[in-house]
Amino acid sequence: DASVRPAAALRFDDLALSAKAVQWPGATPAPFTLGADVAAQAAPAASTAARLELTGRAGAQEAQVAVTLSDLSLQALAPYIAQAVVPRVDGRLAARAAVTWSDKAGAPALKIAVAGATLDALRVRAAGAAPAARWDQLAVSDLQVDVPARTLVVGAVKLVHPSVQVLRDASGQV
Q: Rounded to a whole number, what is the largest CA-CA distance in the chain?
C-alpha cells in the first residue's frame, strides 16, 4: 500500500479459497471459506505469522462473514499506526467477529459484531527508550457496530496491568 509512508506490504502465505455455487450476477449468496497466514513483507521467514480465516456467504447485494484473526503482530500494521502515533508500537492482535452487509433497496446494512478482541503485550516506546505506555492485555467483548444507525455498543472492556510513564522537564512541565 503506497498510500502510507513507509509503504505497507503484507505477505499472505498458505492461501486457501473454497467457494460453491458461484454465479455472476448471483441471485443468491455463494458460500465460501478463505484462510491465509499474514505477516509483514519484511518479517523474517522464521517469525510467527498471524492467521486470518473468513467463512460465510457473499453475493452482489449481501454478505455475511465470520472473521477470525489470531496473533497479528502490530508491526505488520506499523505504516498505518505511524500515521497517528510517532513512537514504535508493538503488540499482538486477535479477534473473532461477524460482518453483515446488505445493499438491498430499502434495507441497506453494515453491521459488525465482535464476540471478542484482544490486544496483548502492548508497548509504546521511542527509539532506545523504556516503554512510555504498556499493558499486558486489552480485551473487548460483545461489541456491536451498526454503521447506518451510527451506533456502538460495548458489552465489556478489560485492561490488565496498564502502565504509563510520565516525565517532567527541568521546568516541571509534563
A: 70
Paired strand residues for 63: 58, 101
Burial class (CB in 10 A: 0-12, 13-18, 19+), 49: buried
d(CA 21, CA 17): 14
Do 115 and 97 contact (CB within 8 A), yes or no?
A: yes
Q: Which three cell numbers stand for residue 42?
A: 519484511
For the stretch 49-86, pLDDT in tens is: 899 999 999 988 899 999 999 999 998 888 888 888 88
CA–CA separation, 84 vs 67, rounded Å?
26
What count of Cα atoms within 13 Å lies in the side-chain half-sphere of residue 9? Answer: 5
Q: Judge contact between 55 and 69, C-beta under 8 A.
A: no
170 Cβ contact list (under 8 Å, min separation 6):
none
Q: What tens digit of pLDDT does each residue of 88-141 get? A: 899 999 999 999 999 988 888 999 999 999 999 999 988 778 888 999 999 999
Name residue 163's amino acid.
S
Q: How far apart are the first and last CA of the chain?
A: 36
Cell of 126: 521511542
